[in-house]
């Protein structure tokens, strides 16, 4: 008995020194619970993505404004420098005109040739002043046009700015969709494709000069061999009616359908 107790104590001590951790698997979720969990995760992901996309837009808009401002400042700087150059030129022409006018006024009555020369100088100065003023106006108009184009030029870099924003603010990974939901969506997609194909065949078989009841349509070649009710045939017409390809009306108290030929 003493030996047995010693053996048991030894085993307890051994287990205590090397505990075995038993990890219990979490209880398996039902489909409804798993769907709810996925939808909750998806909603949180969509909220995060919405905030990130907003940050991206703000960054891109700020870069576009900055780029547009730089282009406008460059145009103004170049235009102002050109206008300043023309204004300095105009000052010289004005000074030449004023000097010639003073000299003309000081000439004696019989200084005919000298007067003629001064008048020519005055006229030339006036012409150069007018030409310079025209050039200044042209620079102003060009500046105005280029400033108006600055926004369009900045927009050409939008793709570049968007790429930078996407790198700075990456989207989180989308939650993994449960297998059974993927299967449901695949089945629904296949159903919609089959329905669309049948709808297209019904429309193709309709004569543009005739109207049809649902019972008439059940006799269409494209529906032969299919176990259909009038309700199912009517369901096939939903998409064509919504797309305005098929119209609904009444004829002799009966609901009929016909092609929209307009």
How would you describe what is shown here?
With 262 residues, the protein is mainly α. Helix content is 73%, strand content 5%. The protein has helices at 2-17, 31-106, 112-155, 158-168, 179-205, 214-217, 230-236, 238-242; strands spanning 211-212, 246-251, 254-259. Strands 1-3-2 form a three-stranded antiparallel sheet. Helix 2 runs antiparallel to helix 3 (112-155) and helix 2 crosses helix 4. The longest helix has 76 residues, at 31-106.
In terms of quaternary structure, what is this? single chain
Q: Which structural class is indicated by helix and strand composition?
A: mainly alpha
* Element order: H for helix, E for strand: HHHHHEHHHEE
Please give the order of strands in the largest beta sheet: 1-3-2
Q: Taking all residues together, what is the mean pLDDT?
A: 90
Number of helical stretches of at least 4 residues: 8
Low-confidence parts: none
C-alpha geometry: elongated
State the end-to-end distance.
104 Å
Task: Profile the largest sheet.
Answer: 3 strands, antiparallel
Radius of gyration: 44 Å
According to DSSP, the number of beta strands is 3
How much helical structure, as a percent, in the residues? over 70%
Strand content: 5-15%
